[in-house]
Amino acid sequence: MAGGGIMLFTMQERLQKILARAGFGSRRSCEELILAGRVRVNGQVAELGQKADPLIDHITVDGRPLPRSEPLVYIALNKPRFVLSTVDAERGDRRRTVRDLVDVPERIYPVGRLDFESEGLLLLTNDGDLANRLIHPRYEHEKEYRVLVARRPDQDQLEAWRHGVVLPDGTRTLPAEVAVSQTLGKGAWLRVVMREGKKRQIREICALLGLPVVRLVRVRIGSLHLGTLKPGAWRFLTPQEVEALKRPASPSRKHQTSR
């Protein structure tokens, strides 16, 4: 280097990214921690958008320094019905959570959620970057469901769902792939592929279309499939599965809908 000096390079990153990598959840949830004033950098309350270097700056959450880096963990769980998709239940709530089913020492969080009555594939990890990539709408990662409805849908109901439905809050759902995969008595199993995941979205759509939901099972998140996991069982992802989840959504399938 000219002059024989030494240049010190710092690796500053946005705080929400640092917190996500440290296991505090998705970037969105880490932004909420910052907005709530629970994060400090070198003793000062942090602001959203602030950058820091975890090797140089002293970063705390609720007064506690960031934990030492844990190994990244990726777990696929078949969530049974009547289990909460949260790490901790609210005070006084004695219902089981997904954390009760997975016995690992690392602090892990569910990527997205399945409501209390729903079941199927749930990814748990302490990799905040991957969590953000899988749940943020702009990445458009697919989620696939098997939905048992009490009535067989007609073509008008299927087409309405495929093109988007206006929810009670006034928002319109994105186009989706929807098809009848099997009839069952007066009802039917539907295959539903979506690129978004608003709270109880499938149940709200079915209620608006007059299709009461009997069962709702998620069978795929992006390239990760539920496979033969039994309800309540879990397994670690393979390195190949993790790498596949980190790849961008396939452009060829991004805007495809069933007909």
Q: Can you tell me about this structure?
A:
This protein is α+β, with helices and mostly antiparallel strands and 259 residues long. The protein has six helices and 15 strands. The protein has helices at 15-21, 27-35, 128-135, 155-163, 201-209, 239-246, and strands at 13-14, 39-41, 44-45, 51-52, 59-61, 64-65, 74-79, 109-110, 119-125, 143-149, 177-184, 187-194, 213-221, 224-225, 234-236. The N and C termini lie far apart (63 Å).
Please provide the ordered H/E string of secondary-structure elements.
Answer: EHHEEEEEEEEHEHEEHEEEH
- In terms of DSSP E residues, the strand content is 25-35%
Number of helices: 6
Dominant shape: elongated
Number of distinct beta strands? 15
Portion of residues in helices?
Answer: 10-25%
* Rg, Å, rounded: 21 Å
Low-confidence stretches: 1-10, 252-259
Q: Which structural category fits the helices and strands?
A: alpha+beta
Biggest pleated sheet: 9 strands, mixed
End-to-end distance: 63 Å
User: What is the residue-mean pLDDT, rounded to a whole number?
Assistant: 87
Which SSEs are present, and which pair or pack?
Elements: E1 13-14, H1 15-21, H2 27-35, E2 39-41, E3 44-45, E4 51-52, E5 59-61, E6 64-65, E7 74-79, E8 109-110, E9 119-125, H3 128-135, E10 143-149, H4 155-163, E11 177-184, E12 187-194, H5 201-209, E13 213-221, E14 224-225, E15 234-236, H6 239-246
Helix pairs in contact: 1-2
In short:
With 259 residues, the protein is an alpha+beta fold. The chain is built from six helices and 15 strands.
What labels describe this entry?
disordered C terminus, 6 helices, alpha+beta, 259 residues, single chain
